[in-house]
Amino acid sequence: MNAEHAIAIIDDSSSVRRALESLLRSLGFAVLSFESAEAFLTSPSALDTSCVVTDVEMPGLTGIDLYERMRSDNNETPVIFITANSEQKVRQRLGNTPCVLNKPFEVDELADCINQAIAAP
């Protein structure tokens, strides 16, 4: 059902990446996984993703830095943020548009965010 939608996971924690990969594959999505924002940005697959799920706090470029870089490059791929920090702190910088999930989050919350993101025009 969702296999035509490739979801990019970007997180510096290998255990989080593996868990999200498994979860999203079980929901029928194709999954691409990256250990950093820089690895994602230099990947030829970066432009072929339907949605990005990224951690906020990472070494090097943060998830917010990635989002801002994508937008400055006219890449409008939807981005979903996951964070162990306060959602309000993230929202101060991003506003209310992107989906922000606090860790730990429910599977349904993530699935809803992704489905809304890929359904948006």
Question: What topology does this entry show?
Answer:
Elements: E1 6-10, H1 14-26, E2 30-34, H2 37-41, E3 51-55, H3 63-72, E4 79-83, H4 87-94, E5 99-102, H5 107-119
Parallel strand pairs: 1-2, 1-3, 3-4, 4-5
Protein described:
This protein has helices at 14-26, 37-41, 63-72, 87-94, 107-119; strands at residues 6-10, 30-34, 51-55, 79-83, 99-102. With 121 residues, the protein is α/β, with parallel strands linked by helices. Strands 2-1-3-4-5 form a five-stranded parallel β-sheet, with helices on both faces. Helix 3 (63-72) links the parallel strand 3 (51-55) and strand 4.
Strand adjacency order, main sheet: 2-1-3-4-5
Query: Number of helical runs?
Result: 5
| Number of strand elements | 5
Order of helices and strands: EHEHEHEHEH
The class by helix and strand makeup works out as alpha/beta
Low-confidence stretches: none
Give the CA-CA distance, first to last residue: 18 Å
Helix content: 40-55%
Taking the sheet with the most strands, its summary is: 5 strands, parallel
Mean pLDDT: 89
Strand content: 15-25%
Shape: globular
Report Rg.
Answer: 13 Å
